[in-house]
Specification:
single chain, 724 residues, alpha/beta, Nucleotidyltransferase, domain 5, 6-stranded mixed sheet, 4-stranded parallel sheet, extended, 3'-5' exonuclease activity, RNaseH-like_sf, Mut7-C_RNAse_dom, nucleic acid binding, Mut-7_DEDDy_dom
């Protein structure tokens, strides 16, 4: 190797800076010379008088190592770390080591994070004097290098000797919450202290700018992010992350409950979508005996209701007279106890008149069974776990109102043709735990879901099953084992356009959504969802809640009965077993898994389709020359093909399937249909002019199947060519 300067007569590598100069050309060609570079580094260290001091000379003499990523300095440092393991005799101790540690500390303040751990290991900084290390970190902090001070503290494990508020506050103001989490991660005591600090920031009247004034000149300071809502979110996220008792943060809890109160008033008095009973249950559950929340409740009642109502709630909550506004206190004196009791349970007079507009359970009330003991559930399982049985399943849980995590299931509803079972899941699980048979109930639930001979109906089963898993850990894999499941949400998606049209036709009523909309379309009337936001944890359940829960599960059976009579109108195959899937929440599984090919989608991206279907035409054709008529259960497919430039006619919902054959003969179109209509229409047109589409797939997969079969070649110029 070439050497220059007045040290050319010295042995190669004896001067660390000459070694560095030798390595730099190899580093620029590191992809080709990586092995040679490593060999040269190790040979150089072997010839240095003091490799540890030599590394510091090289780092101090070159600034190339300060950038992010893998630098030459990083490469040299990590090679030395490995080389020392093979040559432990080069390790230093005593005064010599302390001098090296003093030098490396000044480098640590500037070096990238990937160099910290190797340097700390090489120079044994964990054995250094703790006070000396703390002084160095304090010096960094006082210079305004808060991030660097925190990172070094974490790597040197100094947190237990520092003030968590002092170290974390500037980081929080700079929106470096991830670094704050790392700082306290392995220290439960510091986690609690941090949460207590954040909770004081949630106090009424607290102004974050009072804190920022202590850190004048703080770069990238973002105090506006610390409003009470954001602070509360941060506190609850950290409570969940560190598994700390929420009681440690009373101010954050109060702020969240206050937001819940405001939301409940909005739902009840602005949207008017919550019944008096539900609203009252949630208000009582939210406010409890908290005097601060009671005060806000009274103010909200004055704003949204009237003084007598505010006075009745003040009496109900035993709010001290000195806490009440004078006008409420005066009103309280006028109230009679009997009037107060009557008003407290009063429901809106128009509730009963609305019932005739909603879906009604067709079974007697006596056939709805609320089960709270294992003995009571025996009759349920004996009837449910029968081969060939069809059951509707739904679940209810207390609304979370933004709280962290999935709420546990409070009620499991299982509907059969003649009766409905409502399982009090918390009570049953508690009883099983007490009796030492906690696996008994999960075992039967898993039997139900895994039995392919029992048809399970649900609506949005994915969410229900994830809540079930959150309720009982023994049920966490239920979704993976599920067989014989029909998720009506997936069926609903295939009819969404028709459902929306149905609602537009009934413009006098607020538009329904979800299962309620499907029930309205299929059975004629929507579900009454006023009990949806009930407090499902409170016992006993009210009669309205029991009827609502039973209806939610039973209506699935009636929808399924309609589907069985005319599956094609729901976009399903005449063989409904094709739509039963192993995993709920996943799109219905096709009978044949299609091989994949790349075809442009309307977005211009590449998507995958079938190559298993054989093409009926040897010569490729352009989309503009391909003319089809889509049956009315394939409206989504028709729109998709039109986006790809295909000449498409689509039957209206009220059109008879046979109209497709008339259009096909008159205009020379290919019929695209599915299920039973295919057999009828196939005989009315020439061979090869009627094609059956798999209705269990989405429009994109259906389109790809059609394009492949008829050898239609789509180019980017065709996409949206027929759209205005």
């Amino acid at each position: 190797m070439d050497q220059d300067g007045d040290s050319s007569d010295q042995p190669r590598g004896q001067d660390p800076l000459l070694l560095l100069k030798t390595l730099q050309p190899l580093w620029t060609m590191k992809k080709m010379k990586k092995v040679r570079l490593q060999e040269e580094i190790r040979r150089g260290f072997a010839e240095l008088e003091d490799p540890l001091a030599g590394l510091l000379d090289m780092l101090e003499g070159s600034g190339g190592w300060k950038g992010k990523g893998h630098s030459l300095g990083y490469c040299i440092t990590t090679e030395l770390q490995l080389w020392i393991e093979e040559h432990p005799a080069v390790q230093q101790s005593g005064i010599k080591l302390k001098k090296l540690q003093a030098r490396v500390l000044s480098i640590l303040a500037e070096c990238p994070t990937n160099l910290l751990d190797p340097l700390i290991s090489i120079y044994q900084l964990h054995t250094a004097d703790r006070n000396y290390l703390l002084e160095h970190v304090t010096h960094l902090y006082q210079q305004g290098n808060y991030k660097e001070a925190a990172i070094l503290s974490i790597r040197l494990k100094l947190q237990s000797h520092q003030d968590v508020e002092k170290m974390c506050t500037p980081l929080l103001l700079q929106d470096k919450t991830n670094l704050v989490e790392d700082y306290v991660r392995d220290y439960p005591e510091l986690q609690s202290k941090l949460l207590q600090i954040l909770d004081t920031w949630c106090e009424p009247g607290f102004n974050i700018r009072d804190i920022t004034r202590q850190y004048q000149g703080l770069s990238r300071c973002k105090p506006d992010k610390f409003n009470r809502k954001m602070l509360s979110k941060l506190v609850f996220r950290l409570l969940g992350l560190f598994h700390v008792d929420p009681a440690l943060c009373p101010n954050a809890i109060n702020q969240r409950h206050l937001r819940t109160l405001n939301y409940l008033f909005y739902k009840r008095f602005v949207e008017k979508t919550m019944t008096q009973e539900n609203w009252r249950d949630h208000i009582q559950s939210t406010v409890g005996e908290n005097r601060w929340l009671q005060g806000h409740l009274i103010q909200l009642l004055i704003k949204y209701c009237d003084l007598p109502t505010a006075a009745r709630w003040a009496q109900c909550c035993n709010v001290p007279k000195e806490m009440l506004p004078q006008e409420v206190a005066d009103e309280l004196q006028k109230l009679h106890i009997q009037e107060r009791e009557e008003e407290a349970v009063k429901t809106d007079s128009h509730e009963e008149s609305k019932k005739k507009d909603y879906y009604q359970l067709p079974i007697p009330r006596a056939n709805i069974h609320f089960l709270q003991t294992w003995e009571e559930t025996q009759q349920c399982w004996e009837k449910v776990l029968q081969p060939g049985q069809v059951v509707g399943i739904d679940m209810e849980y207390k609304p979370s109102f933004g709280m962290v995590g999935k709420p546990p299931v409070s009620l499991l509803q299982i509907a059969l043709k003649d009766e409905v079972f409502l399982l009090d899941l918390p009570k049953l699980l508690e009883q099983a735990e007490t009796e030492g048979e906690k696996e008994k109930l999960p075992h039967f639930i898993q039997l139900l879901y895994s039995d392919a001979a029992i048809t399970k109906l649900g609506y949005g089963m994915s969410g229900d099953l994830s809540s079930l898993a959150a309720t009982c850990s023994a049920l966490k894999d239920t979704d993976k084992r599920a067989r014989g499941v029909l998720d009506l949400l997936q069926v609903d998606k295939q009819k969404v356009d028709a459902l929306e049209q149905s609602c537009e036709d009934k413009g006098s009523r607020q538009q329904e959504k979800g299962l309620s909309l499907m029930v309205q379309h299929v059975l004629g009337k929507p579900l009454d969802k006023t009990e949806q936001l009930s407090n499902w944890e409170k016992r006993p359940l009210r009669e309205e809640q029991i009827l609502y829960a039973a209806s939610d599960a039973y209506c699935l059976l009636e929808i399924y009965e309609k589907i069985c009579k005319d599956p094609a109108s729901f976009g399903l195959s005449s063989d409904l077993t094709e739509s039963l899937v192993g995993k709920p929440s996943i799109k219905p599984m096709a009978t044949k898994q299609l091989h994949k090919q790349e075809v442009p989608s309307p977005s211009g991206q590449q998507c995958k389709g079938s190559t298993k279907e054989t093409s009926c035409s040897s010569a490729p054709i352009s989309p503009k020359d391909f003319k089809v008529v889509c049956d009315n259960m394939l409206q989504g497919l028709g729109r998709y093909l039109r986006c790809l430039g295909v000449d498409v006619q689509i039957l209206e919902n009220e059109d008879d399937h046979r109209k497709a054959a008339e259009i096909a003969r008159q205009e020379g179109r290919v019929i695209l249909t599915s299920g039973l209509p295919y057999r009828t229409l196939q005989s009315q047109v020439a061979e090869g002019r009627c094609f059956s589409v798999n209705c269990s797939e989405k429009a994109k997969e259906q389109a790809l199947q059609v394009l492949k079969h008829f050898n239609v070649q789509v180019s980017l110029a065709d996409i949206f060519s027929r759209c205005q």
